[in-house]
Design a protein that fits this description.
The chain is an alpha/beta fold. The protein folds into 3 domains: about 5-85, Orthogonal Bundle (Arc Repressor Mutant, subunit A); about 95-165 and about 265-295, Periplasmic binding protein-like II (D-Maltodextrin-Binding Protein, domain 2); about 165-260, D-Maltodextrin-Binding Protein, domain 2, CATH 3.40.190.290. It has 9 helices and 14 strands. Strand 9 (about 200-205) and strand 10 (about 210-215) form a beta hairpin. Helix 1 (about 5-20) packs across helix 2 and helix 1 (about 5-20) crosses helix 3.
Length: about 300
């Protein structure tokens, strides 16, 4: 039996994770025919069929599934070993692909990112802004930042980096012309602007275990857009402090019901594996964690 080549293992892994020869080719910056030849050679070297192919679909065989787990382990261990050799004094190197919530990336991370890039010039950043929960393995991400009260159970490894406070906000113009707002239940009489990812029901939590179901006359899946609606005096919303800190400082927005602030949201760094974490991932998550702690708001 011939020993499989490294490019063949990499090609097989990407085809399995992306379920497509074309997508794997784009990920590895080569052609679909090259990927197909590498996988075919791997199957010939091993003497088994790893993938079942049709004109529309690629699926993994039982033998392929067993081999995939070993291939991932081998490739991850090799990446760590290569990084250790190239890092010299310990400086992290290589391409780092990170999934980031859009508002967090634009309103909070963007101003801090140059410091990270100057500190780690050998890291090549590939940042993807998207509010959905990406599949780290299938889409080739090294890690992701996720913001939530808690994360759903999964096989992923989550590291808590810090917290962000949520605030109930409105412009002075809206407050002056709106109904009285003395307790959370009064929101039933207000024009609520709702952040929503999936169109499902939305609850606004407040201190003391109060949680209100909010319908909202406008739903948006990006907190940055809500800023403009707030400034225009169109309504009231519950938003992370990092989205509106500058507007609060200037008095363009005013916090409402501060005595009823909800619990902060947690910021997590999420990885697919715990055992072999590249230095580049650790460096990025450490940086985000330090910055969050330095600017902690509850």
């Amino acid at each position: 039996m011939k020993r499989p080549s490294l490019p063949a293992l990499q090609a097989f892994r990407r085809v399995v994770e992306l379920q497509s020869f074309g997508a794997a080719a784009r990920s590895l910056e080569t052609t679909g025919s090259s990927i197909s030849k590498l996988v075919a050679q791997l199957e010939a070297d091993l003497g088994v069929r790893l993938l079942n192919r049709t004109t529309r679909k690629v699926s993994i065989s039982s033998e392929g599934a067993a081999f995939y787990a070993d291939a991932v382990r081998i490739l991850d261990e090799l990446d760590v070993a290569i990084e250790a050799v190239h890092s010299g004094a310990g400086a992290p190197v290589g391409r780092l692909k990170v999934s980031l919530p859009t508002s967090f990336a634009i309103a909070w991370l963007a101003a801090r990112l140059p410091a990270f890039m100057r500190r780690h010039p050998e890291i090549e950043l590939d940042l993807v802004l998207n509010d959905r929960y990406v599949d780290l393995v299938q889409e080739g991400f090294d890690c992701a930042i996720r913001i939530a009260t808690q994360l759903p159970d999964s096989s992923l490894v989550a590291r808590r980096l810090g917290q962000v406070q949520r605030l109930l906000l409105a412009s002075p113009t809206y407050v002056d012309g709106g109904p009285p707002l003395r307790q959370p239940q009064d929101l039933a009489d207000h024009a609520c602007l709702v952040y929503s990812q999936d169109g499902g029901p939305v609850e606004w939590p407040f201190s003391g275990g109060v949680a209100l179901s909010v319908r909202g006359f406008c739903r948006v899946n990006n907190s940055v857009l809500l800023r403009e609606m707030l400034l225009a005096g169109l309504g009231i919303t519950l938003a992370p402090a990092f989205v509106v800190d500058d507007l609060l400082a200037s008095g363009q927005l005013v916090e409402q019901l501060p005595a009823h602030r909800p619990r902060p949201l947690n910021v997590f760094g999420v990885m697919a594996h715990q055992r072999f974490v590249p230095r580049k991932v650790t460096a990025f998550l450490d940086f985000v964690g330090r910055e969050l702690q330095d600017g902690a708001t509850g």
